[in-house]
Amino acid sequence: MKPSIYQFSALDITGKEVALSDYSEQVVLIVNTASKCGFTPQYKGLEALYNSYKEQGFTVLGFPCNQFGQQEKGSESEIAEFCELNFGVTFPLFSKIDVNGDNTHPLYQFLKKEAKGVLGTQKIKWNFTKFLVNKKGQVVQRYSPTTKPEQIENDIKKLLS
Helix axis angle, 42-53 relative to 76-87, nearest 10°? Predict the structure, then answer.
């Protein structure tokens, strides 16, 4: 069996452990997020995708990260409140994690190995790097921070059909 995201778990924004196998048979977009980033308005597009396709088996998983320009300094409750108040975020958010370095979350070690970046690099370059995962939990595509959520919509639709 091919490795998948289902072998991992992570703490949600309230500190509760969530098995990613809870998202089996769904198309998943995993994003490292930040509240004080030039790309932060992408929350709006991510929420729009989530609302458009959640009934068809799609979800967005947001992983706040403070490794890029210290753009996610807040506590988990502050992050959740910011996302809800400013962007109406209802998709699942997780506790802050590291996506690079010695303390990289195991999920991100896996994602980076499965879908390398430009020139084969594994390192996450900035906030709002996105990984698209199929219904079997396998990583099918990595998108740069500059890729707007709406530019991913056709890829999501293909995986849902």
Answer: 80
Contact in structure between 152 and 131 (CB atoms under 8 Å) = no
Active site residues: 37
Q: pTM for the full model?
A: 0.96
d(CA 76, CA 70): 15
User: For the CA atoms of 46, 47, 49, 52, what is the dihedral angle to 10 degrees?
Assistant: 180
Which residue type, as a one-letter code, is found at position 101?
Answer: G
Closest CA to 139 of 76, 61, 83, 68: 61
- Report residue 147 as tokens: 């890729």
Q: Distance (Å, rounded) from C-alpha 156 to C-alpha 45?
A: 13
Pick the CATH number of 5-160 from 3.30.70.1050, 3.40.50.1980, 3.40.30.10, 3.40.980.10: 3.40.30.10
Domain ranges of the chain: 5-160
Beta strands in the chain (DSSP E): 9-11, 17-19, 27-33, 58-64, 130-133, 139-143
Q: Which residues contact 142 (CB under 8 A, 6 or more apart)?
A: 111, 115, 116, 117, 129, 130, 131, 132
Task: Report pLDDT digits (tens) over 12-48.
Answer: 999 999 999 999 999 999 999 999 999 999 999 999 9
Q: How far is 36 from 75, CA to CA, in rounded Å?
A: 13
